[in-house]
What we know:
Keywords: Disulfide bond, Isomerase, Membrane, Oxidoreductase, Redox-active center, Signal, Transmembrane, Transmembrane helix. It holds the Pfam family Thioredoxin_4. One of its GO terms (molecular function) is isomerase activity. The structure is a single chain. By secondary structure, the protein is an alpha+beta fold. It is built from eleven helices and five strands; from the N terminus they run H-H-E-E-H-H-E-H-H-H-H-H-H-E-E-H. It has helices at about 5-30, 30-45, 70-80, 80-90, 105-120, 125-135, 140-145, 150-160, 165-175, 180-195, 215-230, and strands spanning about 50-55, 60-65, 95-100, 205, 210. It has a five-stranded mixed β-sheet with strand order 1-3-2-4-5, sandwiched between helices. The protein is globular.
Amino acid sequence: MKSKWPLILTIIVVLAIVIAIIIRMSTHNSDPNAARQNEKEMVTDTQSKPHQGAKENKIVIVEYGDFKCPYCGAFERNIKPQLQKEFIDTQKVQFRYVNVLIHGEESELSAKAALAVNQIAPNQYWAFHKLLYQGQPSNKDDVTTKHWLTDNFIQQQLKKLDLSPKQLEKITSAYRDKNGEIAKKARNDNNLAKKYKVPQVPSLYINGEPIEDTTDFDTIKSKIDQVIKDQKS
Length: 233
């Protein structure tokens, strides 16, 4: 009868190699220097995105969102006004927005329209941003299942802005171009979400570090206050 020891030894060696690889990968992924570099890259990568608040980028909050996401709409209605009052309008933080194209054509169309406004009439961007979220159906399920975020809806919202006829014409032409500069910007936004493995929308990051609970203002405030305190010390 042949000894089973060679087979057992082979299994032990293979298991040891697998465990070593897992440990090495875990160590690499938890490398604080790598994490800090990743956080800095996010701040740099989002510099050209729509922003408001502080001119300096010492404390940067990045929201990843989708105009066709009901939870993003809830954030816009319930949390953003508090952030606006306490941290954005007081110039304590710079707030940026990145589009994530989760819900197909309507997500992309609204993202392109918003980015076109930001490029051609930047002072009207946040008003348009707010109008898109305000236009969400009141029923949460309808936000994602109903066909409401249409070109006609977007045109209605654009006409509520302080735009000249020429600006409206340029914005419309820009967001309707499926292969133009604005379409590329929308895809770039979505690629950033993939690059940083954004797990869901809405997602918030402060100086590249995720804020876990976007539904509780006190949690968000505590995180921001701590960053402000750390920068002063």
